Amino acid sequence: MSKQYWITSIERVDKIIKLITNDPKKYRLIDISNELNVNKSSIYSILMTLESLNWIVKEKDGTYSLGIILGMLGSQYFSQFNIVDIFNEEVPIIIDEINETVQMSTLNLRDIVYIAKVENNSPIKLATSPGSTLPAHSTAMGKVHLSQYSFNEIEDLYKNIELIKQTPFTVDSIEKLWEQIETIKENGFVWEKQESIEGFVCIAAPIKNDKNEILAAISITMLNDNFKKKKEKAEDLILKVSNNISKSLGYNL
């Protein structure tokens, strides 16, 4: 977008909302002013307006958290995806069979954005939720999304971008990432083993539309200790459910 039409105040609102989203109940007025390198009076006016509109809430200790309006907008955003309804109809198959957490995501540049989640009944819960993000290169669903690109396109996507290691097991080069992506074309799914969270493994497969485009990715996450005994069942289920959702969207196998 041309800077000719850029509105600085809206950019500041965007930065403030993102700060509060990433760390609710952390930032006070002075903290936000320092983070954005903007004088306190300007930040104060924005915060007062956002608070009046119920976009943010000022806590008793002076920190800020997200307000109800942003929660409502977030719910409306995700409700527009018919794919989420189909996901929720299909996922019980997986939960009933192997009792593991199932999630779905879209891609935003180099990050995946979670848009749906159904948890198992284990006391160990994943921290992810609809709206949260993770680097694509370190997640099974991210690798699925990246499989729509050629090797050269992935090189361009990550040009001058470091593949940050989330754990000691995270892939850290384009060449290694491409090797993983190639397995998706062969098997229809990909495993990610402790690259995103130590102690957990994840399998993911693509969800496609009638144009053979990847609209989303679906995953099953489990403890590494469960991998051997649930591996084959998870592979069968992820293919079955991803294909069912894809067919509902017009994809022909």
UniProtKB/TrEMBL annotation:
Pfam families membership: HTH_IclR, IclR_C
GO annotation, biological process: negative regulation of DNA-templated transcription
SMART domains tied to this protein: HTH_ICLR
Keyword DNA-binding listed: yes
Gene3D superfamilies reported in the protein's UniProt record: 3.30.450.40, Winged helix-like DNA-binding domain superfamily/Winged helix DNA-binding domain
Domain annotation IclR-ED: ranges: 69-251
Molecular-function GO terms, alphabetical: DNA binding; DNA-binding transcription factor activity
Keyword tags: DNA-binding, Transcription, Transcription regulation
Domain HTH iclR-type: 7-68
Protein name (record): Putative IclR family transcriptional regulator
Species, as recorded: Mammaliicoccus lentus
